[in-house]
Amino acid sequence: MALRFALLALLARVPMHGYAAHRAFDDAFGDVVELNHGRVYQVLRTLEEEGFATGEERREGRRPARRVYAASPRGREAVDAWLRSAGERGEPLGEEFFLRLLVGRERGEDPRAWVAAERTRVAELLRLAGGASADAGRGAEDVGGLVAFWRRLRARADLAVLDECLAMLDRCRAKGAARAATASRPASGG
Question: Does domain 2-82 have CATH number 1.10.580.10?
């Protein structure tokens, strides 16, 4: 599901044919997820069929015509809604979280609010699962206990990632503010 929104965000930036979409996806999101060429074309066709993208045949010079896709207004709204819905799902951090982070960066948005919302959600999951105290001094007695233990460990790891993400965003903001302050100072004459 996240793949389609990430691809759609790229199409909202600039229309492109399948091969270019694959290359742009790999450049922007390749560190998070690998997307093969066949899947790109499948997702593009589905986005067009569902009205999230438009497609038209274009010929460039002597080359055969290619289908060029662009995000429709409905597609742009869907990407906006997807970014706003962060923190509403119950699954742990994974590919979708990092794709959201990268899409937000591509769009020049500050993801701090939805990262904080995601942190609140994960902290609540940990609280409901018994937090750190549930693991003190005992092992799992059965598969159910092992699953609960795994969920607590996963939630703690997700919290650590979210805390680091917020710290990284704060460091980036501070560096940007320092650069802006330096750039706005008048040059000193000698």
Answer: no
